[in-house]
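Q: Got a minute? One more chain.
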Amino acid sequence: MYKALIVVLIAVVTAAVSAASRNPLRAEAHIPGATLRIEVQQPIADEKAAEIIEWLRSASSNVSLAYGRFPSPSARIIVIPSGRRSWGGDSPVPFGRVTRDGEEKIELFVNPDRPIQEFYADWTATHEFSHLMLPYVRPRHKWISEGFASYYQNILMARAGHYTAREAWQKLYAGFERGRLSRPELSPNEAAAAGIRKARMKIYWSGAAIALLADIELRERSGGRESLDVALDRLQRCCLPSKRSWSGPTLFAKLDSLVDIPVFMPLYRQYADAAGFPDIRPALQRLGVIIENNSVSVMPHAELADLRVKITDGHARL
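A: Always. Here it is, folded:
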């Protein structure tokens, strides 16, 4: 089943790229910290292309809500039309990917038949743009890059007003559950070695759980002076864009060097080679994220309620 799906996806990508090679509409988007070079491939009607460009300005600005600017100063964004529902039902953006082959390029495959309002509610572009907050991480530690992007796709959509705070926590919890139930015999490193086809949910959501744990610990230990936002801001200032590939331990050690108290390598040593899934239930309880029958509610007077609000509202001190 999975092999057949991959063959279909490759065929769709190949056909879409071939059709997209004709006379793209080009534009630039000036956002905090970056000038984005946008190409909208044909066939997409001019009016819809203009709407998509405006949506991309908005989606890229979502990512600037992490630390005040877009993480890559001159990224290239290619929009490729694809109406194939097999990619993701009726999703307006059923697939995206980031490549780093001399430049940072984001390809977004879109269904131009969907209403533009659906694009603004879709998380795919925010996820792909969030990848640029980290350097290229080697496949052995793919759970870090995919996990951090999965964490940020939800909290940034909340900060931008596309999700309520409760919706963001509901989506995070649902993702954590998918990760917990996926390949429980594997550690995050083993899941990454097995590959996306065999351990997708474990790869994406174990990394997101570790991102949440790091964010909480940084905020709590520093009294709000530091956060995952702050650590990634400092990483971007010192080291991005980066032309080399990074191992997970190298990246986490670098992040630890940028904050007052090491957080990342202790989490790596605790979870990277441990089977199962990080136990995030105590952290969620302290945040006031309460789960009952798989439904999330948020409690206003929990121990770390203020910290929880800052995660989904922003207000990091950079």
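A: Residues 196-222 form the longest helix (27 residues).
Q: Perfect, thanks.
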